[in-house]
ABC transporter ATP-binding protein
Amino acid sequence: MTARPFIQVQNAEMVFTTRKGRFHALQNVSLDVQRGEFITLIGHSGCGKSTLLNLIAGLLTPTEGALICDGREIAAPGPERAVVFQNHSLLPWLSCMDNVLLAVESVFGGKESAAQLKVRARAALELVGMSHALHKRPHEISGGMKQRVGIARALAMEPKVLLMDEPFGALDALTRAKLQDELLKIVARTQSTVIMVTHDVDEAVLLSDRIVMMTNGPAATIGEILAVDIPRPRVRVELAEDARYIAARKEVIDFLYTRHAHVEQAA
Ligand SMILES: Nc1ncnc2c1ncn2[C@@H]1O[C@H](COP(=O)(O)OP(=O)(O)OP(=O)(O)O)[C@@H](O)[C@H]1O
């Protein structure tokens, strides 16, 4: 017997009302995510990946269909669904520690002592290798470090689901690779359920249990879902020559550039 899906997207449709009229962004999107799964959403620019993530975050409400997390309808943002954005949204006037503490307080503030809250914030920063910069402010650290603090802030809330919108998109290739490896280790330790938007085929194959490939908009939907049957722990250098890795990569590239190639629409 399979467990009830942890997250269920049921026939979701999203139509935006704009000054130029209605824009049909997503249609008939259905997706079941099991607890502990790592899912990536991939597709061409503008196909609706962020829209789908924002629906799951509760930042948007679907015009049709339903979204459910752990048996309850998603009606608004909640601490059980933490979001990490591409542009680390840290408060510039607070230290790394205080940025994380603020999130910790919002979830555990009524129930735990100030000392316990600090222990939580410190532990999350240690998990992402940022113990050395607790008292630095965002402008004093690099982009990769800011992104780590953003991930620490999300993890410190002990969310049931980690929602990530191109979290490494703005980073150089080496920093990106390092953070991907760290994320793999963190997720192995925390057993988190993760849904991540990416444009990067290698990132998707390296990290995912399943890759959700989206068709081009308007009225985009899920085209195909690819299960990545590569055992964990996954080691980057070994994967490069792994036949399963190469086959999964080829499958996603074929989807994106042959079966669903992006044709620029005239404005
Ligand atoms: N608030 C909004 N109002 C109107 N249209 C919107 C709104 N948000 C998104 N859209 C449109 O919906 C479509 C999907 O946008 P979305 O940001 O989800 O795509 P994406 O796949 O995440 O793109 P990218 O990869 O470039 O970040 C786009 O055509 C976008 O212009």
